[in-house]
Model the fold of this input.
Amino acid sequence: MSTPTITASVTIAGETIPRVELRPVAVDLLRSLWEEYGPLMFHQSGGCCDGSSPMLFMAGEFITSDQDVRLGQFDLAPTGGPAQPLDFWMSIEQFNYWSHTFLTVAVVPGRGSGFSAEAPRGVRFLIRSELMTTITPFAGPAAIPA
Done:
């Protein structure tokens, strides 16, 4: 059985349309990393280094604040397995730029940032984006508390 694409649950108040998904190769890598490290989380900062690469951390290793938006939560668990929640966070500044896009997390060869958990495996996560097809009901940056 092949690994499916996983779409995150909606976590922004007032929205009903998901904002982020994981490609099958990303799901497989994340499940492997979960076995090695335990619970995980993504954070997309948009900073100077690997700005289009979400950083993968052990859950709680990166402290989020009111300057971050939780775009969604994935359940990495295979069918019938115990829940494996993985939150996808983005800095509010980055969200202001990308609020109109749907994000897909892919895996590509090469080394990204040394801070991200997948770096030693010779691959990195990468964001692919496309315009969202609707803006209703779409919170957008103004709806996120600063």
